[in-house]
Fold this sequence. Notes:
Elements: H1 2-10, E1 28-29, E2 32-33, H2 35-47, H3 53-71, H4 75-87
Antiparallel strand pairs: 1-2
Amino acid sequence: xxxxxxxxxxxxxxxxxxxxxxxxxxxxxxxxxxxxxxxxxxxxxxxxxxxxxxxxxxxxxxxxxxxxxxxxxxxxxxxxxxxxxxxxxxxxxxxxxxxxxxxxxxxxx
Length: 109
């Protein structure tokens, strides 16, 4: 986490941070909250730089591990991992894609 904060302090993304927890997914499973795992994953995606494929893979793997630990099972964690690998690509240009905090700020965005 220290490395992430140092990255943000050194070069803060121009767009304000926003998180909805587990984007497009549930924030709780079988009575266990996984919201904070999604929140930290959003923070990593927000602060990511375009082209950081290894950093994105690490962020996605850390989400999977965090969810698996919280739920004490792997099925949901692995499903989420595959979902973010497909849906979080910066090439999709979604509002939650890798590096969403670093997209240029202009009146039409």
